[in-house]
Amino acid sequence: MNAIDMAIRAAAANITLNDVTKAYDTETVVIPPMDVELRAGEFTVVLGPSGCGKSTLLQMIAGLERVSGGKILIGGREVQNLEPKHRGCAMVFQNYALYPHMSVFDNIAYSLKVSGMAKAERIERVGAVAKMLGLADYLSRKPGQLSGGQRQRVAIGRAIVREPGVLLFDEPLSNLDAQLRHDMRVELAELHRRIGATTVFVTHDQVEAMTLADRILILNKGRIEQFDTPKAIYHRPASVFVAKFIGAPPMNILPVTGDGRVLRLADGQVAAEAPLTGAYQLGIRPEDILVSGQAEGRAVTSTLRFREDLGSHAILAAELGGSVVRIATPFGVDIPDHSQLSLNLPPARLHLFDAESGRAMPGVFSAH
Ligand SMILES: Nc1ncnc2c1ncn2[C@@H]1O[C@H](COP(=O)(O)OP(=O)(O)O)[C@@H](O)[C@H]1O
Ligand SMILES: [Mg+2]
């Protein structure tokens, strides 16, 4: 570990939000009171649809937006009234505007120069950061002479050169093409393993969330739907909102009615046994549905509508009980179009949600 790695690791701070709220005007509350604790050194991904308050949350931590109420603590210190530069955070944006007329070195060194650091130390720090980010050979180039990925790395270098204990990212990869996004994801994960800064990474991309996060915080209209590990979010979604936001294709959700003994689909077919009465939503992931012949047990009948072959596997879309369900099947399973499909819904793979609130009802099926 070099000096920069060690300095950032030492400075990693936990972030606590107590009753933090944000309203831009009296009518619209963007963030209702929020309590959350981000552990020192943890990589948190804030995930949610556009407009749910992700950037607002990040900017309140950074100090670029004021809180309307509540407290923010970084490393145990109350910061909600401090200037951004006194909070020990560094931020990387989607539109990372580098200074086009300055070299890579000067771009990275800029904040150090402004803070009055001596030249020899600046050279040493920028050198260490550039080496860490694979930019050592590009220090004299201008941003216009770099690839998109290299420019993004310069933006990250500029953020970490001040040795922040907290790194904040707001959709930093959205402007990159697919291959570069993937490469940058791997680089960011590697960077985090090395420097261990407390990281908050905002995105609307579930793949980034699943692959980067220690824990994912899912926001829906400014409220926390679930805050847990990627595995728990995928396998034990706390609500229909989470279940439908994660997974490609997402979890199938079917309305069912209980008669005290079984849960029936809208067309009367029995989907599962459960001693429940009333209306519920039943969830099952595409890869958990078995096309008949693959398993024993209760089967329901559906009609195949269309299929998409993805090479590694196929996605079937079938009509079941008035809904369209998606089924992921291994490639090579030969299923003719418009055929009747007999489907198994293994009870251990079922998720049950309240019909109205959409909250998960753990314990009914063994998936929870
Ligand atoms: N400066 C502002 N003034 C008024 N409303 C704003 C302002 N910034 C954001 N909003 C509103 O707050 C909500 C959350 O925005 P934002 O945090 O940018 O969402 P996200 O980053 O999740 O897409 C949106 O409804 C947006 O219109
Ligand atoms: Mg945003």
Provide tags for this entry.
binds adenosine-5'-diphosphate, alpha+beta, 368 residues, 6-stranded mixed beta sheet, 2 domains, transport, OB fold (Dihydrolipoamide Acetyltransferase, E2P), ABC-type transporter activity, 5-stranded antiparallel beta sheet, binds magnesium ion, Rossmann fold, 25% helix, 9 helices, sn-glycerol-3-phosphate ABC transporter ATP-binding protein UgpC
Give a topology summary:
Blueprint (H helix, E strand, L loop, with lengths): L2 H9 L3 E9 L5 E10 L4 E5 L6 H9 L6 E6 L2 E2 L10 E4 L11 H11 L4 H14 L15 H13 L5 E5 L7 H18 L2 E6 L2 H7 L2 E6 L2 E6 L1 H6 L4 H6 L6 E8 L2 E4 L4 E4 L3 E8 L5 E2 L7 E11 L3 E8 L2 E8 L9 E5 L6 E4 L14
Parallel strand pairs: 3-8, 3-9, 6-7, 7-8
Antiparallel strand pairs: 1-2, 1-4, 4-5, 9-10, 11-12, 11-14, 12-13, 14-20, 15-19, 16-17, 16-19, 17-18
Helix pairs in contact: 3-4, 3-5
The protein binds adenosine-5'-diphosphate (ADP) and magnesium ion.
Overview of this structure, please?
Pfam families: ABC_tran (PF00005). Its main location: membrane. It is a peripheral membrane protein. It is found in: Cell inner membrane. One of its GO terms (biological process) is carbohydrate transport. By secondary structure, this protein is α+β, with helices and mostly antiparallel strands. The protein folds into two domains: 233 residues, Rossmann fold (3-Layer(aba) Sandwich); 105 residues, Beta Barrel (OB fold (Dihydrolipoamide Acetyltransferase, E2P)). It contains nine helices and 20 strands. A six-stranded mixed sheet has the order 6-7-8-3-9-10, sandwiched between helices. It has a five-stranded antiparallel sheet with strand order 13-12-11-14-20. Strands 15-19-16-17-18 form a five-stranded antiparallel sheet, with no helix packed on it. The protein starts with a helix and ends in a 14-residue tail after the last strand. The model has no long low-confidence stretch (mean pLDDT 91). It binds adenosine-5'-diphosphate (ADP) and magnesium ion.
